[in-house]
Write a structure and sequence with these properties.
mainly alpha, Ferritin
Length: about 160
């Protein structure tokens, strides 16, 4: 299987998972968060498609099959929504998912038999790092209304 097709398949399944969470969420803030995560997955998938189109056509990984290339959530959508009691904004969940994706591509790169495929897998790991940064930025944006300047002397806001 082409490594980029594998990555795109995982992103499509992740997007579908977030869409289900968005549909089930009752809290408007959570709906907004999942909506932004769906949009981020769309953008990420498009970036992967561009990477695939620019890379050599034959970037295959021996032994890579459809079973490996699937998003495997640790929790069902219902369980994850119940998990919001421990992680109200699910930030930890989203970050952990992105970190797992980075490790996944790095481990596959270690299994690659040729340098071109290894290079593509490391490129995918780098793309996941950029996507992790996007998730972190979404969280900062969603949390921004909760951040305010408490005191001019003791600022709780980050300077740009």
């Amino acid at each position: 299987m082409n490594v980029f097709d594998c990555a795109i398949k995982i992103e499509e399944e992740t997007k579908s998972y977030y869409e289900g969470l968005e549909a089930e969420a009752t809290n408007p803030e959570m709906k907004n968060l999942f909506s932004m995560l769906v949009a981020a997955e769309d953008e990420h998938e498009e970036n992967l498609r561009r990477l695939r189109d620019r890379a050599a056509a034959d970037q295959r990984l021996d032994g890579l099959n459809g079973a490996v290339c699937s998003f495997k959530p640790h929790l069902t959508q219902r369980e994850l929504l119940e998990e919001t009691e421990k992680d109200p904004d699910l930030y930890i969940f989203a970050v952990k998912k992105e970190e797992e994706d980075i490790r996944f591509y790095e481990e596959l790169a270690g299994l690659a038999v040729n340098d071109a495929t290894r290079s593509c897998l490391m490129m995918l790991a780098d793309e996941e790092r950029r996507h992790l940064e996007t998730v972190e930025n979404i969280y900062s944006f969603v949390e921004a209304p909760k951040n305010y300047l408490e005191s001019g002397e003791f600022s709780n806001l980050k300077t740009l």
